[in-house]
Specification:
By secondary structure, the chain is an alpha+beta fold. It contains 2 helices and 2 strands; from the N terminus they run H-E-E-H. Strand 1 and strand 2 form a beta hairpin. The two termini are 20 Å apart.
Length: 73
């Protein structure tokens, strides 16, 4: 049970850090969400957005971070 609590605390701290980064430097990340491969369809009464490339980038980043954490342990 203590191990689960430890992981929840670490995850919460990580989410807060990401939130702070986005809050202060979000306007400097205008490229994110506009990568080649992100699908945007805008019509008069319809909008569709599928950030495929952006989510692949986030997935690779999270995988790299978790891999580094496992190697350190």
């Amino acid at each position: 049970m203590q191990q689960v609590a430890k992981y929840l605390i670490i995850t919460g701290i990580f989410i807060v850090l990401i939130g702070v980064l986005i809050f202060f430097w979000g306007d400097k990340m205008h490229w994110f969400g506009n990568l080649p491969g992100d699908i945007k369809i805008k019509k008069e009464h319809f909008r569709f957005y599928a950030p495929i490339t952006s989510m692949l980038f986030i997935s690779a980043l999270i995988t790299l971070i978790l891999w580094i954490i496992r190697k350190i342990r």
